[in-house]
Design brief:
Number of strands: 12
Strand content: 15-25%
Largest sheet: 6 strands, mixed
Distance between the termini: 22 Å
Length: about 375
């Protein structure tokens, strides 16, 4: 499955600089609002040391990591929900992504202007929140009008739908995002069908200066305090450092640079791993002489569904899955050794795939 994350934030917070560094693309990064008008799309390879380890054991003809699609959405401003600053276009771009990566500026730099005159990540976040909530209120209000017409028939289900939609509208009107609404199982279908912007899971990225990358600064402390009740993850990334890393040619040069900076991993790794947690995703592998490959599935999925990520025909014709645990594969050194040790499981349709499983599917053609 393809994961699609949208980077949002006010103009000049470092979105496009971060996007360029993450994807090695060259989106326009300029010191003025609306440097990005059309969304830039880039593909990031998901870093996974387990894939490298498997490849070193199997020595396949090809190694295929899984990927994340990153969309750099133009900077939102006050009034975006009413179409200000190409707002309607920007909000439509957000609707198409699986998760939102909200970048807030947490660094001081007199050479980079701020659209609102000064650095205040809490205010900036609230500006984005309000615009997204206002757009969602508009969406719910329009749906309510249609539902109320249908409810005039007196049909019990239609009346219940009006009550649900009204409750959602009231929640949004209280300036709370849709992701914090608790809906019953029978309300979920209506809620999902509205495709509300603020229902999307969110990851906050504090864009900091080099000196603040480890422990943050006063801006990040204030920001963390402001979102503590959301249950959302906040990570620190320096777009400037990521841009420098992206310029280096080899993995060895990048590792040396990170060591010099006192860092264990680049920000792109933190962002991707956080995005996986946010969307409840895991990785399983297929390993053979032709290819060692990583595949992304949702946590809790069963073996046939995982097979369907490779091809729908495999899911339809699923017979069984042969499963090897990653640690067993690495410890014993080959598939043959795993089988000999009796460590390979043969699983049916109700097997729940685990992160790191190495799988081979048997199926009818």
């Amino acid at each position: 499955m393809a994961l699609k994350c949208g980077i949002v934030g006010l103009p000049n917070v470092g979105k496009s600089t971060l996007f360029n560094a993450l994807t090695s693309a060259k989106a326009l990064a300029a010191n003025y609002p609306f440097a990005t008008k059309e969304p830039n799309v880039g593909i990031i390879t998901v870093p996974d040391n387990r894939l490298d380890q498997l490849a070193s054991i199997v020595n396949p003809q090809k190694v295929q990591p899984t990927t994340v699609e990153i969309v750099d959405i133009a900077g939102l401003i006050k009034g975006a929900s009413k179409g200000e600053g190409l707002g309607n276009q920007f909000l439509a771009n957000i609707r198409e992504v699986d998760a939102i990566v909200h970048v807030v500026r947490c660094f001081e730099d007199g050479n980079v202007v701020h659209v609102d005159g000064g650095v205040d990540p809490v205010r900036d976040k609230e500006t984005i929140d309000i615009e997204l909530i206002l757009k969602d209120m508009d969406t719910v209000e329009k749906r309510l009008e249609k539902l109320k017409k249908h409810a005039k028939t007196g049909e019990k289900k239609a009346v219940k739908a009006v009550e649900t939609a009204q409750a959602i509208f009231n929640h949004l009107e209280g300036e709370a995002p849709a992701r914090t609404i608790e809906v019953d199982e029978d309300q979920q279908e209506l809620f999902d069908s509205m495709m509300l912007l603020t229902a999307k899971p969110i990851l906050y990225v504090c864009n900091v200066d080099e000196d603040s990358i480890e422990s943050g600064n006063e801006h990040t402390k204030r920001f963390n305090d402001s979102v503590k009740d959301e249950g959302a993850e906040v990570i620190l990334i320096s777009a400037g450092i990521e841009a420098d890393i992206a310029e280096l040619e080899t993995k060895e040069e990048r590792m040396e640079f990170l060591q010099d900076m006192g860092l264990n991993e680049p920000g792109v790794n933190k962002l991707i791993h956080s995005s996986y947690r946010l969307l409840n995703l895991i990785t399983y592998f297929t390993a053979g002489e032709k290819e060692v490959r990583a595949w992304t599935v949702r946590r809790g999925c069963f073996a046939p569904e995982a097979a369907g990520v490779i091809h729908t025909d495999i899911e339809r014709g699923f017979i069984r899955a042969e499963v090897i645990k990653y640690d067993d594969y690495v410890t014993l050194g080959s598939e043959a050794a795993v089988k000999e040790a009796g460590k390979m499981g043969v699983e049916g349709k109700t097997y729940e795939v685990q992160d790191g499983d190495i799988m081979h599917f048997r199926h009818n053609s």
